[in-house]
Amino acid sequence: MEARFNLFENEIAAKFGKRFANTSMVIAQSPLPKSTQELVSLRASQINGCGFCTDMHTKDAAAAGETPVRLNLVAAWREATVFTEAERAALAFTEEGTRLADLHHGVSDETWAQVRKHYDDDQLAALICLLALINAANRMNVIVRNPAGSYEPGMFDSFVN
């Protein structure tokens, strides 16, 4: 299986991708916990059907020490006991912020209140930006049908300044 278009070999797409990756570094260096960043990225990728990003964030989370049990339960987080209240708030925010067209109101006031309860302004800013970024990445990869399975943690490190 091959992608229908190689974003890494096209000059315009590669320039955009480099800036995109550099933007992600702002979030990576934020006070939002790394585990939360990966759980959010993984859940949005699952919702959007992005195999490439699901593969990447599962492997990155595992490489950062996330447990197989938690990774396997992200899609069923509401019924799982392995996530903190803060993580549950972030996952609810992820689902509502990703499924904008389905919900007709975006993020609910209840979910917003839960997120505000658990995250300070800098963490919340990072969470909002992360959700926007992963949804954009999902869309690019789904559009070109980037296949999943070949990602190795750290393989894009040289892509970032």
UniProtKB/TrEMBL annotation:
Residues 16-96 form the Carboxymuconolactone decarboxylase-like domain. Gene3D superfamilies: AhpD-like. This is Carboxymuconolactone decarboxylase family protein. It comes from Amycolatopsis samaneae. The lineage of its organism: Bacteria, Bacillati, Actinomycetota, Actinomycetes, Pseudonocardiales.
